[in-house]
Specification:
The protein has nine helices and 14 strands. The protein is of the alpha/beta class. The strands form three sheets. A seven-stranded mixed sheet has the order 10-9-8-11-12-13-14. It has a five-stranded parallel sheet with strand order 1-4-5-6-7, with helices on both faces. Strands 2-3 form a two-stranded antiparallel ribbon.
Length: 356
Amino acid sequence: MNVPKTGYRVFSANSTAACTELAKKITERLGVELGKSVVYQEANRETRVDVKESVRGQTIFIIQTIPRDVNTAIMELLVMAYALKTSCAKNIIGVIPYFPYSKQCKMRKRGSIVCKLLASMLAKAGLSHIITMDLHQKEIQGFFSFPVDNLRASPFLLQYIQEEVPDYRNAIIVAKSPSAAKRAQSYAERLRLGLAVIHGEAQCSESDMADGRHSPPCVRNTFAHPGLELPLMMAKEKPPITVVGDVGGRIAIIIDDIIDDVEDFVAAAEILKERGAYKIYIMATHGLLSADAPRLIEESAIDEVVVTNTVPHEVQKLQCPKIKTVDVSMILAEAIRRIHNGESMAYLFRNITVDD
């Protein structure tokens, strides 16, 4: 049994062994056993969950890391949460270090805000609380009808910079686009380092995605009232690529929350090399590293990519030795302990800035 006197259980909702590593580290730190359950895909690809022990009246924490098969992981989480709900669990708390679909949190033309849909699905399945880390946009917390604890990975990444980056006092923090400047500034201020921002047409920021604002106007109706005519909008054009800040002879450390498709990071590294940076690091919380990311990193001017273990990426590390991992199981385990004991979470957010 999973320490019955504690009044809480910890389960993993993943069906793949690689995705349960973080859950095992968290339970080891908590001093409890991982709950007994079986999560698997049937022959017709339906998800099935069997809980192998009683959870009646217990507080349940479900740890779900998100592999490449995002939709399967979501279904595993939903089915397990509903199984625990129908088994009379008292509270069901999701520990989702990387929250999927977090980039789809804004309306894009005739699309949908999928992140809000997922929040509603989780509530309907029975979750009453979520612990996550570095949401892509902090406003995502407003999509939920229950509490969300958005932990930060910055203390671990800052510690890595101070301990593992040689001569980090000669470094400069770089934002690869103006939209990432606030996060980069937060790191720069705590490390007492300078700040540089890359701006220009080589960057393809999220705000430039097609959202309908530049759709061609309707054919002007000569019979319409002239007062209804809208002024013509000037098309937005990016200036030539520019690095705001001196990176010559410095170590450049690019800060972001997610590294997925790495083309932007590779292009930024090339620009920084041209401007005189002699070493380039990339720091990000969530290392999705999709598609050919390991190969592109290995062939690029990037010297090291540092990510946390919110997302499993052992295969990518075998393909690219430049990828390093920082363990964040400590803060996730402490969050679970504090929530179960009814303690304040403020300690986990000490020295955390609003823009972090």
